[in-house]
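Thread: flavin-adenine dinucleotide complex, take 2
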Amino acid sequence: MSSLTDDFDAALKPAERAMIARARDFAATHVAPNAKEWEYGRKQPLDAIRLAAAEGLHAIELETRFGGPQLSFSCKMRVAEEISRHDMGFAFALINVHNSMVRFARDGDPAMVARLLPKLLTAEMIASPGLTEPRAGSDFAAIRTKARKIEGGWVLDGAKAWITNAANCGLALVYAQTDASKGWKGIAGFMVEADRLGFHREPAFELLGGHAIGAGGFRLEGYEAPDAAMTAPPGQAFKFALAGINGARTYVAAMCCGMLEESIRVATRYGGERTLFGGTVMDLQGVRWKLVDALNDLEAMRALTYRAARIIDAGGDAQEPAAHAKKFAGDRTVPQIANCIQAMGANGLRADYPLMRHMACAKIACYTDGSTEIQNERLGRAMVERYGKSGGATASG
Ligand SMILES: Cc1cc2nc3c(=O)[nH]c(=O)nc-3n(C[C@H](O)[C@H](O)[C@H](O)COP(=O)(O)OP(=O)(O)OC[C@H]3O[C@@H](n4cnc5c(N)ncnc54)[C@H](O)[C@@H]3O)c2cc1C
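Output below.
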């Protein structure tokens, strides 16, 4: 019997299936053996990002006119799922390298793109999306980084925090407020280069897990951005920043699927070999049933996630499907990985197995690209719109 994933992949183009197979091989060869060291060494593996770039895994959606293969969102999402089996942190860093480059190539000033794209294509330079600040996350409209107009450009002052790839980025897409009285309409987007005067990188954050993400922050102090570096003008930047959000929510859910499947696989294999009371752990119905519950959630997570991906590629409205996928994945992955760890006894806690790393990353998935509560807000609005209209409602509908 084919799996949901087999069926999903079967509908993709041959070049997309080949890309996914390449990602699977890359993850087995370069991510799985090193993820533990990256995590406990608390470092972002820039060399491995460059190796992934050499395989084209950072440029899946990049348009052919910029040298990319211009494959589908679904392909990118499946690549993220495959890599996340071994390290969601690495997959998350890579997909942000990808997205920032695709955006920059499409929306950046042509001269700037001609100068920097070759470096981004080899990942000699990597880029970051910079929305969040020390005092503004979910409430993006409340950002305090300021952009002040000067002749020929803008002066940026402020701080960004929780930025993926901040540890090593050479380029950041920074959102800044040009006129606080206009609220979200005053926000503009700028391409900020880390080697220019006024850019100050902060040390990467020390976290419970996910260090391959290279999450951290930077300060901008009197940073002068030329007019050409503005990628999204006030009035458009807020929407521009949120343009890829349904995709991001969907691939984060797919990353959870990758981590949960690997956790179930490891726990099941371990339980089949670990003997106790004259049998194996997998002979214990109570443990088997717990892992079946995890598998059951995984199936449901995949069904929601793949549905959202199909809608995105078809150009449909994916707001609700993506929010459902991300909310459900965030809610279920953390407790189900914990159940897999429980099934392995104390050995499940050891760094020799990936489960504790995966659990930390599953928690990260509850925040990135809109927290679980923000998904609830999105879905709650839609629910009230659909079911909450007054007018003749009775107890039976
Ligand atoms: C590893 C990692 C990488 C990240 N990478 C990036 C990146 O590359 N670029 C970037 O810009 N950001 C990035 N982020 C930031 C991420 O987008 C924010 O963490 C997220 O938007 C939530 O913001 P916050 O953490 O400041 O929480 P807050 O906004 O301070 O929220 C605090 C709590 O309130 C809840 N809450 C917020 N609003 C509501 C509401 N309306 N109703 C009910 N509850 C609510 C939140 O869910 C949360 O539980 C990253 C985060 C992590 C953990």
